[in-house]
Each structure stands twice: as structure tokens, then as C-alpha cells.
Amino acid sequence: xxxxxxxxxxxxxxxxxxxxxxxxxxxxxxxxxxxxxxxxxxxxxxxxxxxxxxxxxxxxxxxxxxxxxxxxxxxxxxxxxxxxxxxxxxxxxxxxxxxxxxxxxxxxxxxxxxxxxxxxxxxxxxxxxxxxxxxxxxxxxxxxxxxxxxxxxxxxxxxxxxxxxxxxxxxxxxxxxxxxxxxxxxxxxxxxxxxxxxxxxxxxxxxxxxxxxxxxxxxxxxxxxxxxxxxxxxxxxxxxxxxxxxxxxxxxxxxxxxxxxxxxxxxxxxxxxxxxxxxxxxxxxxxxxxxxxxxxxxxxxxxxxxxxxxxxxxxxxxxxxxxxxxxxxxxxxxxxxxxxxxxxxxxxxxxxxxxxxxxxxxxxxxxxxxxxxxxxxxxxxxxxxxxxxxxxxxxxxxxxxxxxxxxxxxxxxxxxxxxxxxxxxxxxxxxxxxxxxxxxxxxxxxxxxxxxxxxxxxxxxxxxxxxxxxxxxxxxxxxxxxxxxxxxxxxxxxxxxxxxxxxxxxxxxxxxxxxxxxxxxxxxxxxxxxxxxxxxxxxxxxxxxxxxxxxxxxxxxxxxxx
Length: 562
Fold this sequence. Notes:
By secondary structure, this protein is of the alpha/beta class. Helix content is about 35%, strand content about 15%.
């Protein structure tokens, strides 16, 4: 079948939708005089984010809100956007994002806003930008702050949020509080059981973070020091978020050989804390584990049937991004980066460390599954974007020895991409009704300091990739379902009542995209490429992306829970 706009609209539930007119909002106060809109979007098919089929409707905006929908063509407006042949939908909510400090380097968040992302949910994988000790603050200032020449001068969420508001940001910003950040502050980097007193201190810090506007608790149980906590300890922290209607988001303890055990632990923690559970970037890594996806979903569905509230998110790629240290089990990372690097140089430990790393590589397949994505030293820049197998083929070096020496020389700070999933695995996850779309990536740009690394292509392409490849081309689901997984569903999960839908009285975070052309362009070798087909993006009523170009407008807000 020739895949034209007509057939696309027909197969995605857009055909036959008539014009719908929604009554004037209370903002108009019953006035009979037509408003002069700040922005009027005309001629588009509106997909409202609820999963419902599209309707033909114009959208009138005054200030930061949608004030009227329907046939509004005769009304005056300061700005008219002709969306004929295009889709108008809510701004995408990236429910698992790593756009944190990058907003201080480049507040425009170019790679995200150009995908249609209007709200970033940060503080993930157990790591947040607050709370900080004096020592941690100094480390950030001397590291990230000095490298990018940005001012980092806060220790709590109040200070963080004030800094972002003062500097202005291009997208809305939400943050969780990191369980790993809290544990590092109170217990340190040691693999020890927290005392009752330490748990009380951690609970008090979580309460403070939630009272300052954090949206929940996140954990990253493959990363130290968060990995050193057991489930019961984490549940105690989770209980604190319950009184704030927060949720628990987890990068589980394992996403490959012990996936099922990790799912069961995540459910145990949420059940004991009596809070909703969000399983982050849900995947089964390694070919021998792909068939565990269905078993994991059965466990999750059973828990939901018993009264739990569990959802998941996933990015649409066959490779994950992490640190090269993660080739080694957490027992070798006990004590922090310096201790790990010292172990790499301890002859008595090398045989065990090599066996453990090679077992991980065997699970992935071979060394071609590992790509180097970030280093700091100039002499190692040549490795960026190359797979370990490719590097050692040139040098004739043992691959483990290459990795060991690189980690030592870079003091443990090396980024990697691991090719561990398949297209079949992606389909089974993305199409599940409990799964939302998330990037698991931060904001970047094709210029300036944020262009100097080789990030995962999800930084640039996540949402257009779903709309173009997996919805339009591969037909995993219809378009209203795809949009719901990016908008209304994450808004509902977060309890974000004024976003995630196109409706009168709600925030005017909107995306206008071309369903025929929307697609990602970034790939693993050339990730710094903006997506195409996202023609207009509005954040709080302001036109930020205009005919595909960033207007330099910084209309984002810090969204604090409560």
C-alpha cells in the first residue's frame, strides 16, 4: 500500500473525526466579545493526549493557556500558525531525562525542544543535584562548574530551583530526589548496612526535598553507593514520599541475567512503602535474556491486579548508555571511583575482575557490543565513537587490558554504549499498555560545549523516532496511542494536572508536527543531528520552535510538586 498522508491518517484513527467546539473557559468571564488571541493554531488535527482519536479543531491561546478550541478561523490573533495537514498535540513529557546541569550550560535544551519535549523529568537513576554537602558542592564546582564555566552554588532543592529560575530555561523542569545522592551524603561510598540513626537522617533529607518541590524518590541500583542499600532501607525512604503523593522511580538492580529478581525487588520496595512504582528504561539486555520480558510483564500485571500501581518507561533503541565501570560488578566499585581505579591496579584482584568483566561481555555477545562515548583526556578522544573490537584490531592489544588502562588513565570516568537489545525486544516493550516513552538522555546541541561529546542518539531522536519509525513505518500502534504514551500518560503518572492534554484551561505546551516527515536523524556514529518534522513547539504559550528553528525564547518553568 502506498503510505500517503491519507492512508496514515486512516490507519491511525484520524479519519472521520469532525470538528469539535469546546466552550469558552472561565478565563473569558462569560464575555460575549471575541478575544484577540496571542496565538491561534488553525487547520490542524488535534490529538489531545488522552488516547482518543483526532479531531479537527483550531486552538486559541492567551498568555500561557489554551482558552478556546473549535472553529476559530474568523477570530483575530497576534500570531496565526497554519497547521493544515499537521498534527497538534500536547508537548512531550520526558518522564526519564538526564537534562540536569546541561541547562546551566545551554538553557535552550536544543536537542530536546526540537523533538517536541516541553517538560524534562530529571533527578533520575538515584542521582539528583540536591541535597549536597559542602564537599560535594566543592567537587561539582571544581569539576563540572570549572569545565563549563557555570555557577553552581546551591546545596538544596530550593537553591537549585532558584538558580534555574534566575538563569531562565527553555523547557519545564521537574526533579526527583536521588536515593544514591542521599546515601552518599549520609553513609558515604562504603558497602555497609545503614544504621537506624542513618536511616532516620536520610528520611529527614527526603522529607526536606519533597517539601521543597521534588516529585518523588529515584534509585539507581546498578550504581554505587545506591546499590549498597537493601530493599527495606529504600522502602523506608519511599514511605516519606507517600505523604507528598510522590512516586518511586527505579533503575533496577539488574537488567539482564537477574532481571526477574530485580523486578520482584522493585515491587517489594514499592509495596512496603505503599507508593506507585515507575520502572525506568525497562529492558532485557543480552540475547539470552530477551524471552524474560514476557515473564516480567506477567509479574507486574499480577501485582497491579492485586492493587499496586506500576508503570514503566523505555527508549526506542537497541543500545543502552552507561559508564564503562559498569562492566564490573558493584563489589569492585565499593568505596567510590578512586577505590575502583586502585583495584584495577592491584595484581591480586585482576584475575577476578577480568573474569567478571568477560562474563558481562559474553552476555552482550563480544567486544563489538561496547562503544566508547566519552573521555576527558585529549589523547583518548580518538576512541570516541569506536567499538572496543575496532580499537584493539588497530592496536593488537588485549581488549580487557585496553579497557583497564583506559579506565585507569581516565580515573574511572569513561562513557560507553552497550548494544544489548533487539528490535523484537523493543516491540514487545513499547507496545505494552503500561509502558511510556522516555529518552533516558540529556539535552545537547550541535554547537558549543554540549557538542563536544558523543552522546547516545536518544538525546536527539527519541520522540520523533517513535512517531516516525515505530508508529508510521512499523505500525506498532496508532498515532493517538503513541502521543498518549508521551503526554497524557506521563502527566497522569506524575500527577501533573495542567499539562499532558490539549484542553481549555490547561497550559499551552504544544507541538505541531508533520506526520508524513517526522523522524529522527541522529545515529550512534553521528548523534549530533536534530530531528525533522517538528515544525512548531510552544512552551507555556510562547512559540519556541518556529518552522523548525529555535527562536531563542526561554519560556520554561521549574515545576515544583505541591
